[in-house]
TrEMBL record:
Localization: Cell outer membrane
Pfam families: Porin_4
UniProt entry tagged with the keyword Mitochondrion: no
Gene3D superfamilies to which the protein is assigned, alphabetical: Porin
Organism this protein belongs to: Grimontia sedimenti
Top-level taxon of origin: Bacteria
InterPro entries: Gram-neg_bact_OMP, Gram_neg_porin_domain, Porin_dom_sf
Alphabetically ordered keywords of this record: Membrane, Signal
Range of residues in the leader sequence: 1-20
CDD domains: gram_neg_porins
Location of the Porin domain: 7-289
GO molecular function, one term: porin activity
The name this protein goes by in its record: Porin
GO CC terms, sorted: cell outer membrane
């Protein structure tokens, strides 16, 4: 199978592990198995919760014609609380050097925008939450293409458990000087007769062992003529020192209905991750929750949180 086509197929599957093991390759078709085992202890208000999980994925690729390939991908996540187990990806598609088209349970188009600031081992990414069609969802026709430093995505979602119909579009341009920019838009009608839309823009810069990024989100919800504006922004920074990476993010989100404003997310998070090798890492993450008790449903939702984690990638 053409090496360039294999690279495109693997690049299109963002969740595959870098250490995924190829278990079959006959020159035309291949199969790889990957995943992670992650032990996570979360401590909030003196209580410790087991948030451990395991992900297992299978990626198959096959050359179906000169310059064209087929791909199939499956990933399931098993959690310490079995009731929260879920299929994360189930899709198949056809690709060429001009891009990959898939159908099934797959990502929307704004994940590559939120990835600019979603850099922490556990916390962060609270203000950039995506609507369903822009996130991972089923009944999803998706396209992704890479053209030099430009990556473009588009997807359309038909009716499923949460969405009546909708779409999302996104583009990221990465320059050789370390600067990258991203822009995306999503729109959907839900089964609850709620209309939602959002736009997200991000920018980042990396030099040597330093990375900085910023993201802004502007969205709205409409129900029976009533409109709620949803805005948010995130700031992120990372510094790598040897085999240890330090990251921090600030997340702030606001809801406005008429003249009523309220903060829905407000936090500063810091973490440190040590990579023993490509397969094993450990981390500690702390979230400083800046919300007041009167801005959340329960007192615990306004508490800080400390998380310890051990992760093995295979």
């Amino acid at each position: 199978m053409n090496k360039k086509l294999i690279a495109l197929a693997v690049a299109a599957v963002a969740s595959t592990s870098v250490s995924a093991a190829e278990i079959f390759n006959d020159g035309t078709s291949s199969m790889a198995i990957g995943g992670r085992a992650e032990a996570r202890a979360a401590i909030k208000d003196g209580d410790m919760t087991d948030n451990s999980r395991v992900r297992i994925n299978v990626l198959g690729t096959t050359q179906i014609a000169e310059g064209a390939y087929g791909v199939g991908f499956f990933e399931r996540e098993f959690k310490s609380n079995e009731s929260k187990d879920e299929n994360r990806y189930i899709y198949a598609g056809i690709g060429t050097e001009f891009g990959l088209v898939t159908y099934g349970l797959n990502d929307g188009s704004l994940g590559m925008i939120t990835d600019f600031t979603d850099i922490m081992s556990y916390h962060g990414a609270g203000a950039s939450s995506k609507i369903d069609v822009a996130d991972r969802t089923d009944n999803n026709i998706a396209y992704v293409g890479e053209f030099g430093g430009l990556t473009v995505k588009a997807n359309y979602v038909g009716e499923n458990d949460s969405v009546e119909k909708g779409y999302s579009l996104g583009a990221v341009y990465a320059m050789d000087n370390g600067l990258a920019m991203g822009l995306g838009y999503a729109d959907q009608d839900t089964n609850a007769k709620l209309t939602e839309s959002q736009i997200e823009a991000a920018i980042s810069y990396s030099i040597n062992n330093i990375y900085v990024a910023a993201l802004y989100k502007d969205g709205e919800e409409k129900l029976s003529g009533a409109k709620t504006d949803l805005t948010g922004y995130e700031l992120a920074a990372a510094y790598k020192m040897g085999n240890t990476k330090f990251t921090t993010t600030y997340n702030n989100a606001e809801s406005k209905a008429g003249s009523t404003k309220s903060d829905t997310y407000d936090s500063i998070a810091v973490d440190a991750t040590h990579y023993f090798n490509d397969n094993f890492r450990t981390y500690v993450s702390y979230n400083f929750n800046l919300l007041n008790e009167n801005e959340v449903d329960t007192k615990k939702d306004a508490e800080d949180e400390l998380v310890f984690g051990l992760r093995y990638d295979f």
